[in-house]
């Protein structure tokens, strides 16, 4: 049995034992008052749910007992029979056997024999006499059975807000741990250093244990989409075959919550604008029903959620022409863009307009909002398309947003953290590898010209004024090697000139308090081991600022 199958079995067990306790309670209420409609309705609901869950898990006999009990309570609800006579003890015994079946699943014991019970339940359903079974138990058996009825489940349900609070406390602990480690290293006291190392191991295990508790299967979200797709397809008079995959992939529950609206928008957009209507598909030599695939998968430390359709695809040239008409870039600049760079324009704010529904199949409508949602998590949004064949959107998400890998850099004797998700490479370049073109400093990396800008200029820039035009004369002749961090966002790379690199480490990011939270160049703040506050740079915001203010 895989770890995932074991987890599903434990979740089933926890819920089934709750059902069992509730059934016993409501049966007692119904025995005291056979006219108790609320208890009767609850028993019917519990049996129905247990039947469905047991069958889904492959527990056939348990599902069959619950099914026949559901039928009996249905007959009572419809006034075909009353909760009296031999029906009463048999239903109590049936619930006890269900409890034994559930416990057998949890302990891995042999399945409970329910043959005679099923026969008697079938006789009752048909209005026939039941077959007498051997007689109430010995005193020891009765005591053992009573003890089983008082067993508690090994699983508990915890509200998400409690986990959020626990994670925040662990984050505070990690920050103080790093400060203690730094202090111990400075003092050089052997006993203190040993204690600090032990604290590091414990807090590290605690941190990842809490993060693990917050993980849920992506299916929690993906399994809600069949109904969404069905409704949109019906409204658009389209036929859609939806396939889901990767529901078992684990991801932080809060990450799923934050990308729900973005994923909903992309899926609705795929059905509404990506897939053609049946007549258009058949005219293009395709099946009348469009195919839509929503998949969750892992890639290194990230979780990928892909939405893939076999529809029209994106008309790259139409996007290029639209960008020029909107004044986003010149015709020459647009012509120089490759496909990926053109598709990146779909994510620019204000690019989407109603006429695009015809020009590029509606793709790009609202994608700037989707992109911002993904950016807020420190994720990425990729797009790939082939005209006439289809489009794939890929949401690259962190497994957890609690802890981020970061590169610490220094500028003007102050440390800043840059999330590793957006770091591309680090360089140390001499003057002769830097050139100026059109007022911009540039360098060439892997056959690509990368613009360079002093990070200081971006952080200290004011208003709408463009950045100052740069020439090679601005580079001090005796500066030695220039330290450059190349960051990547939305298929664009930008080189940031900094003072020096410090180190790479995991950080716990805290939100900025008012009024600093309005400064979009910073994605939060963390505390370093020496007690120094360290601002976390928002690479997407820095890239957008550079594009808006480039000379």
TrEMBL record:
CDD domains registered for this protein in UniProt: HPT
Domain HPt per the UniProt entry, residue ranges: 1-105
Enzyme class (EC, first level): transferase
SMART domains cross-referenced by the UniProt entry: CheW, H-kinase_dim, HATPase_c, HPT
Top-rank taxon: Bacteria
Phosphohistidine found at: 48
Keyword terms of this UniProt record: ATP-binding, Chemotaxis, Kinase, Nucleotide-binding, Phosphoprotein, Transferase, Two-component regulatory system
EC number(s) from the headed UniProt entry: 2.7.13.3
Domain CheW-like: 403-548
Keyword Kinase carried by entry: yes
InterPro entries in the cross-refs: Bact_Chemotaxis_CheA, CheA-like_dim, CheA-like_homodim_sf, CheW-like_dom_sf, CheW-lke_dom, HATPase_C_sf, HATPase_dom, His_kinase_dom
Domain named Histidine kinase: residues: 151-401
Catalysis performed (reactions): ATP + protein L-histidine = ADP + protein N-phospho-L-histidine
General function of this protein: Involved in the transmission of sensory signals from the chemoreceptors to the flagellar motors. CheA is autophosphorylated; it can transfer its phosphate group to either CheB or CheY.
Name of the molecule in the record: Chemotaxis protein CheA
């Amino acid at each position: 049995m895989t770890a995932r199958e074991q987890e599903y079995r434990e979740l089933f067990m926890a819920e089934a034992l709750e059902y069992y306790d509730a059934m016993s309670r409501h049966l007692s209420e119904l025995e005291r008052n056979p006219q108790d409609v609320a208890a009767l309705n609850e028993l019917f609901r519990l049996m129905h749910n247990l039947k469905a869950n047991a069958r889904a898990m492959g527990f056939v006999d348990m599902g069959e007992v619950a099914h026949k009990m559901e039928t009996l309570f249905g007959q009572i609800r419809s006034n075909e029979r009353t909760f009296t006579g031999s029906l009463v003890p048999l239903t109590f015994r049936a619930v006890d056997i269900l409890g034994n079946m559930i416990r057998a699943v949890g302990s891995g014991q042999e399945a409970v024999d329910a043959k005679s019970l099923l026969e008697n339940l079938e006789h009752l359903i048909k209005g026939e006499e039941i077959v007498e079974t051997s007689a109430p138990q010995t005193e020891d058996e009765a005591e053992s059975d009573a003890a089983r009825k008082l067993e508690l489940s090994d699983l508990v349900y915890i509200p998400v807000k409690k986990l959020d609070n626990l994670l925040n406390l662990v984050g505070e602990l990690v920050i103080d741990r790093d400060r203690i480690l730094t202090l111990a290293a400075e003092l050089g006291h052997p006993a203190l250093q040993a204690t600090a190392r032990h604290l590091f191991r414990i807090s590290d295990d605690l941190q990842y244990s809490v993060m693990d508790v917050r993980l849920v299967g992506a299916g929690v979200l993906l399994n809600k989409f069949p109904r969404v797709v069905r409704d949109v397809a019906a409204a658009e008079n389209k036929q859609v075959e939806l396939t889901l995959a990767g529901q078992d992939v684990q991801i932080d529950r809060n990450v799923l919550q934050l990308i729900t609206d973005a994923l909903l928008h992309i899926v609705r957009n795929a059905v509404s604008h990506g897939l053609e209507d049946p007549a258009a598909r058949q005219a293009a030599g395709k099946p009348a029903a469009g195919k839509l695939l929503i998949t969750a998968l892992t890639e290194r430390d990230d979780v990928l959620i892909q939405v893939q359709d076999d529809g029209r695809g994106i008309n790259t040239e139409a996007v290029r022409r639209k960008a020029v008409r909107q004044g986003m870039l010149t015709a020459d600049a647009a012509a120089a863009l490759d496909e990926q760079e053109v598709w990146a324009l779909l994510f620019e704010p204000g690019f989407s307009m109603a006429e695009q529904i015809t020009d590029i199949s509606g793709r790009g409508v609202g994608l700037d909002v989707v992109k911002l949602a993904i950016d807020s998590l420190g994720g990425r949004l990729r797009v790939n398309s082939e005209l006439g064949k289809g489009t794939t959107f890929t949401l690259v998400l962190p497994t957890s947003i609690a802890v981020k890998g970061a590169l610490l850099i220094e500028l003007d004797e102050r440390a800043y953290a840059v999330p590793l998700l957006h770091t591309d490479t680090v360089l140390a370049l001499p003057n002769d590898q830097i050139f100026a073109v059109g007022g911009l400093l540039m360098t060439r990396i892997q056959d690509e010209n990368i613009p360079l800008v002093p990070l200081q200029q971006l952080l200290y820039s004011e208003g709408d004024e463009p950045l100052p035009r740069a020439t090679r004369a601005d580079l001090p002749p005796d500066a030695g090697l220039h330290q450059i961090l190349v960051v990547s966002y939305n298929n664009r790379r930008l080189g940031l000139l900094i003072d020096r690199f410090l180190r790479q480490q995991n950080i716990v990011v805290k939100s900025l308090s008012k009024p600093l939270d309005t400064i979009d160049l910073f994605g939060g703040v963390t505390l370093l081991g020496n007690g120094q506050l360290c601002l976390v740079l928002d690479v997407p915001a820095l890239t957008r600022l550079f594009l808006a203010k480039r000379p």
